[in-house]
Every structure is written in C-alpha cells, then in structure tokens.
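Structure request: ABC transporter permease, Paenibacillus mellifer.
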Amino acid sequence: MRSLLAAIRTENTKLYRSYVLWGTLVFFLFVTAIRVGEGDWNTYLSNVVFMFASVFGIVGFGVVAGWTFGREYADRTMKDLLALPVSRGKIVAAKSMSAIVGCLVVVLITVGFALLLGLVVGVPGFSMDKVLHLVLQLLIISAIHLFMCGPVIWIACVSRGYLAPMAFAFCTLMVALIGGPTRLGAYLPWSIPALQLAQSGGAVFPLEPVSYIIPIVVGFAGYLGTWAWWRWADQK
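Returned structure:
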C-alpha cells in the first residue's frame, strides 16, 4: 500500500506540473465563459453540461488520460519507470487514479467557475432544484466518460505514445455526434452521456440499464487490457 501511495503521489506531481491538465482546464473555462450569456440558468447550465457530455468529456478527458500513459513512451522514460521497485500493476493503478482525479478536479473547478460566473453576470431564472439536478447529471456524465478512458489508455500503451489516443478520442467524438441521434445511439458508449442529458428531464437515470452497463464493461475492458499489456506485452 505504501508503494502504491508513493506511485500515486509521483504521478500526481507529473500531471499537475504538466501543461496538458491546465491547458485543458483553461480551454474548459474559456468555453464556459463564452456560453454565459445564453438565456436563463437552465439554458446556460444545460449548455455547459452538454459540452461535458460531448467535447469536454470525450476529447478533454481522453487527452488527459492518453497523455498520462503515452508520455512515458514519448519522453523515453518507460525503462526508468519500470526500474523502480514498484510492481507494474501498481504503476498502472497509480496512473489511472491520477488521470481520473485530475479529470474530476477539472470538472469541479469548471462547475464552480460556471456557477460563480453566472451569479456575477446575473443570469436570470436561478432555481436551486434545477441547478442541483444539472450538477448531478454532470457528475453521472463525467463518471461515464471516466469509464470510457479505459480504451484510450490502452491505445496509448499499444501505440507507445499519446498521438494515437488523441486521434481515437476525436474519432469517437465524431461517432457520438453521428450515431447519437440514431437507434444505435443508446448502445454506443460515447453517445450515451449526451442521451443521458437529453432524456433526463426529472429522472436521474432515464436510460435503459443496458445503456449504463455498456460503458462500464467497455471501460473495465480497457483498464484490464492496459494492465495486461504492461504485465505481459509492453517490453517486447
């Protein structure tokens, strides 16, 4: 446990000192500030949450997760990392936890900024119930996207870099935008977050159970595949 905590601290330091995490946050805040003048609180926050359901979640989270794993290959530090007295499984766990926590920090800062900015600007129609409902939907949507980071980090390891996972994230965004409105949208893991928001209304979980099971299964497969790659195939 002590070695795992040390690995997590190390990975957190790498991530928080990088331009990737804070550049992603600045982009999120900039887009949020642009949307502040659109309608009332319901419209404003719905637009912000929709951005997380699409671009922010798919591409933003994918960039952070892909960079966390891919940078070791791009910077040629993989051999140094594996020389440490820490098991490969713990390194994968530490990197995954660091990426997940980093994305959650970005989410919380962006939400706090959106709420504060809306109050300062004086967006009309404030409703605590509606705000809490949309924030809850944002947390659910973010959780789905964090599961979907599993395939991204697996691709980062297999491709030995961070360009392929970033390209994959952009491709899945296109898949979500094209396939979301179709009948297959409820079964495409990248389309499900946007459908979660669109159909939420007054329900917390408006979709069929299979729409929540699919991202969990695909996400765990990606994380497990990453562990397997580090365990058996990464040093060929």
